[in-house]
Amino acid sequence: MDHPRWQRLVKALRNLADNDSAVAAAAELQSVASSEDVPRLVELLADESFFVREAAAWPPSDLGRVDLLPQLLAAYHRGFAEGHDNDGFSAALVDLVQAKPIEARAQLSAFAEGSDLELRESSAWLLGFVEAAHDA
């Protein structure tokens, strides 16, 4: 995506005073983001705004970027810490691991054996969806 379009979308995502534009920008980001946008999406996953972080979670999910699970899960846990229900974020994560169950299983299994309690719990939860996708 070209730089001016990216800037326009990010500005709209951050302008929660105009909900309709922010939601439209989130939908546009999801529909047009490509692999070339991954570095910028990773930056958005660390944004101060929960809305921006959740909007940034969908393109990696749609692109099948299991390699971004560490960044996605960090943003996901931050949302919980801030008191958000993370429903949309949860859906993006589930879609990702169900779309790429073999790749996700390897990474999630390693996380599930680590020392970070939040990461272990999230990994165990997501592994349930990996297994369901495998059994289907």
Detailed description of the structure:
- With 136 residues, the protein is mainly α.
- It has one domain (3-135): Serine Threonine Protein Phosphatase 5, Tetratricopeptide repeat (Alpha Horseshoe).
- It contains eight helices and no strands.
- The protein has helices at residues 3-14, 19-32, 38-45, 50-62, 69-81, 87-99, 101-112, 117-135.
- The radius of gyration is 15 Å and the shape is globular.
- It starts with a helix and ends with a helix.
Supply database-style keywords:
globular, mainly alpha, 76% helix
- Compressed to H and E, one letter per element, the order equals HHHHHHHH
Class inferred from helices and paired strands: mainly alpha
Uncertain runs are none
Q: Quick one: how many beta strands?
A: 0
What's the N-to-C terminus distance?
36 Å
Rg over C-alpha atoms, rounded to the nearest angstrom: 15 Å
- Helix segment tally: 8
Please give the CATH class.
Mainly Alpha
Percent in strands: under 5%
Mean pLDDT: 94
CATH topology: Serine Threonine Protein Phosphatase 5, Tetratricopeptide repeat
- From the coordinates shown, what is the CATH architecture? Alpha Horseshoe
Largest sheet: none
Overall form: globular
Number of domains: 1
How helical, in percent, are the residues?
over 70%
